[in-house]
Write a structure and sequence with these properties.
Elements: E1 14-20, H1 31-48, E2 52-57, E3 61-66, H2 74-96, H3 106-111, E4 120-124, H4 127-143, H5 158-163
Antiparallel strand pairs: 1-3, 1-4, 2-3
Helix pairs in contact: 1-2
């Protein structure tokens, strides 16, 4: 594996990002953790001002289709997202952990790991590729036999596109121009 990964930022393209849980464990395997992830994603979206074109949260990984942020880079966004979610999840798991009982989370708790260190970033150059990545994301829960149809998986952007439904994460919101008014004295 290369020691220095080169990322392509600055051209204004979309980024199809995949990040996995530590050792591919299903740390997002319950609705509470997936809801928490989406809450953190929306907070990070607002803080770094980027557009989310699509997302899906699976039990052990996440796919995002995002624009480049107004603040920082996609790497900065992923670092903030992964760290914020990990802190909140680990805090919750430590409070709930029963010391006399081995749990699925024991190793992750002891080591403080929630995510794999790196993430996969595919630069999306065309509308055709954007549509392909969205289809792939939205079909992922069906392919994995978690649901029968994409609209049944609450933790994706599918319902935004199919029904124009608002969800916990704002999808496809265009960056609003900021108007600054200077008062002349």
């Amino acid at each position: 594996m290369p020691k220095r990964l080169h990322r392509y930022y600055g051209a204004g393209y979309l980024h199809f990002i995949t990040t996995s849980c530590f050792e591919r464990r299903p740390l997002l395997g319950n609705s509470r953790n997936r809801d928490l992830f989406l809450q953190v994603l929306e907070q990070v979206r607002r803080r770094y001002r980027f557009v989310i074109k699509g997302y899906v949260v699976m039990p052990e990984h996440v796919h995002l289709l995002i624009s480049e942020p107004a603040r920082g880079t996609p790497s900065t966004v992923m670092q903030a997202l992964k760290q914020s979610f990990a802190r909140k999840l680990l805090r919750h798991l430590r409070v709930r952990a029963n010391p006399g009982q081995n749990s699925l989370w024991e190793t992750a708790l002891e080591e403080g790991h929630v995510w794999q260190r790196r993430f996969y970033d595919f630069v999306v150059f065309t509308d055709r590729k954007r549509a392909e990545k969205l289809r792939y994301m939205h079909r992922n829960p069906v392919t994995r036999k978690l649901v029968l149809e994409p609209q049944q998986w609450r933790w994706s952007s599918f319902r935004h596109y199919a029904y124009d439904e608002a969800g916990p994460v704002v999808v496809d919101e265009l960056q609003k121009a900021q108007l600054t008014v200077r008062h002349v004295a």
